[in-house]
């Protein structure tokens, strides 16, 4: 007898993308068989009828700040909407942090993520705080949620490595206490030289401790903010390569074509990942512009074309930098399609991959990610045709399965409409969707 049988689901071949209708056999938390769908009896502890849903790997959140989540308005609201006022509001909230406060808000946000089908999360945690209270709390949360959500922690020096008192020591101490990833914020450092030095410190620290690097990089509408070339070059020279990620890089939305061409080559050669946070960049960037106002989004379409791995992140859920958010990567993908004009049929499908497969590459999940024999039984059942359909209709997963256990269920909402001259009828917002071209 197996632990769990998931009947009648469509899975996509990871190489060809072709779908087939199968049953998933789960035992000991892993997928032990993927067989053509049959109604024959199989002994299982739990049986889920997938009703033809698409079984797809869970969403992956490559970039969020759980230490700050759910603090919007505390102690005051960010009225200008700039990154800078967000950092100032947070600096006022920081001295009020307690272990319980951080654990409660972080776990609440992770409950929302799991309910939405997100089972891998990379969270930054501000380490420019001599008490490191948020760091210790999130290290504890990482353990508490281990059975349901895989949480990676980034030591994030919000107020700088070189420009904050003891910044380098605090970052080093965070690496010692057991983070997964080392961060940086070169555009925030006081000088260009400090910015370059801060990237070197972060890459060197990660290299020595066997960690990844994920830097907030060039998050400013200043075409002269050019630290991503430094980060990519350090990634290549250190050999860390795909273990390095550049987040935000909004200045790239202002770079000229000649420099952009040179930069794309450096980025592609380095193997680093990029994370764009479209909801938050649309909100925080362009704030110092008169008209025309810039979008403040990195060159997502062009980077993808250059062969760079780009994922979409949420960045914030109700905090000093962003007042909205429900911890739902599918919403991020929807905003991302518009913000980056990835709106052809294939491009919309790609945005779905940017909150699943591409984000999984950022976290370095490897073979542990995917719906295949041997992988952890962590997947979502989406009553959708494909990623394009899921993004368009914002389809919620009916079932979220984490390590072999059904951890969330959501019956689809049903709307009954009475149209003039017709009997009441269900509206599904789901006409036959054209198959991929
Ligand atoms: N801190 C920062 O420097 N940039 C951001 N986008 C957030 C926090 C959310
Ligand atoms: Fe961020």
What's the arrangement of secondary structure elements?
Elements: E1 2-12, E2 19-27, E3 30-36, E4 44-56, E5 59-64, H1 83-93, H2 99-115, E6 118-126, H3 133-144, E7 150-156, H4 167-177, E8 181-182, H5 192-209, E9 212-217, H6 228-238, E10 244-248, H7 257-270, E11 273-276, H8 278-284, H9 300-305, E12 309-312, H10 329-339, H11 345-354, H12 357-363, E13 379-382, H13 387-393, E14 399-402, E15 405-409, E16 415-417, E17 425-427
Parallel strand pairs: 1-4, 5-6, 6-7, 7-8, 8-9, 9-10, 10-11, 11-12
Antiparallel strand pairs: 1-2, 2-3, 4-13, 13-14, 14-15, 16-17
Helix pairs in contact: 2-3, 4-5, 5-6, 6-7, 10-11, 11-13
Fe (ii) ion is lined by residues 63, 65, 124, 216, 247, 315.
Summarize this structure as a short list of keywords or feature phrases.
binds fe (ii) ion; 8-stranded parallel beta sheet; 437 residues; Urease, subunit C, domain 1; binds 5-methylcytosine; alpha/beta; 2 domains; TIM Barrel
């Amino acid at each position: 007898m197996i632990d769990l049988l998931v009947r009648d689901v469509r899975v996509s071949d990871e190489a060809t993308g072709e779908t087939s209708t199968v049953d998933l056999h789960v035992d000991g938390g892993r997928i032990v068989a993927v067989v053509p769908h049959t109604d024959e009896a199989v002994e299982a502890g739990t049986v889920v009828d997938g009703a033809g849903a698409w079984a797809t790997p869970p969403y992956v959140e490559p970039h969020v700040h759980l230490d700050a989540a759910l603090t919007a308005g505390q102690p005051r609201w960010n009225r200008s909407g700039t990154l800078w006022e967000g950092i100032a509001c947070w600096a006022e909230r920081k001295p009020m942090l307690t272990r319980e406060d951080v654990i409660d808000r972080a776990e609440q946000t992770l409950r929302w993520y799991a309910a939405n089908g997100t089972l891998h999360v990379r969270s930054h945690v501000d380490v420019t705080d001599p008490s490191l209270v948020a760091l210790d709390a999130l290290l504890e949360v990482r353990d508490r949620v281990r059975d349901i959500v895989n949480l990676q922690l980034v030591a994030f020096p919000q107020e700088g490595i070189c420009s904050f008192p003891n910044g380098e020591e605090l970052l080093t101490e965070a690496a010692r206490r057991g983070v997964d990833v080392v961060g940086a914020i070169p555009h925030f450092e006081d000088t260009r030289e400090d910015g370059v030095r801060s990237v070197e410190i972060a890459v060197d620290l990660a290299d020595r401790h066997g960690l990844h690097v994920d830097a907030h990089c060039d998050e400013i509408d200043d075409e002269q903010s050019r630290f991503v070339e430094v980060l990519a070059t350090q990634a290549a020279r250190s050999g860390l390569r795909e273990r390095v990620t550049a987040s935000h890089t909004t200045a790239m939305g202002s770079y000229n074509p000649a420099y952009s061409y040179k930069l794309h080559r450096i980025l592609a050669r380095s193997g680093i990942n990029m994370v764009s946070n479209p909801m938050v960049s649309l909100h925080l960037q362009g704030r110092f512009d008169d008209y025309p106002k810039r979008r403040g989004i990195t060159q997502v379409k062009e980077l993808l074309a250059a062969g760079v791995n780009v994922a979409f992140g949420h960045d914030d859920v109700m905090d000093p930098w962003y007042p909205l958010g429900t911890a739902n990567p599918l919403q991020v993908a929807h905003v991302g399609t518009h913000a980056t004009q990835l709106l052809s049929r294939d491009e919309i499908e790609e945005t779905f991959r940017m909150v699943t497969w591409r984000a999984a590459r950022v976290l370095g999940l490897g073979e542990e990610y995917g719906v295949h024999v041997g992988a952890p039984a962590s997947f979502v059942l989406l009553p959708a045709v494909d990623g394009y359909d899921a993004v368009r209709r914002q389809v919620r997963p009916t079932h979220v399965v984490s390590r072999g256990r059904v951890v969330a269920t959501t019956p689809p909402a049903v709307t009954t409409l009475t149209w003039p001259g017709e009997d009441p009828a269900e509206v599904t917002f789901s006409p036959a969707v054209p198959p991929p071209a």
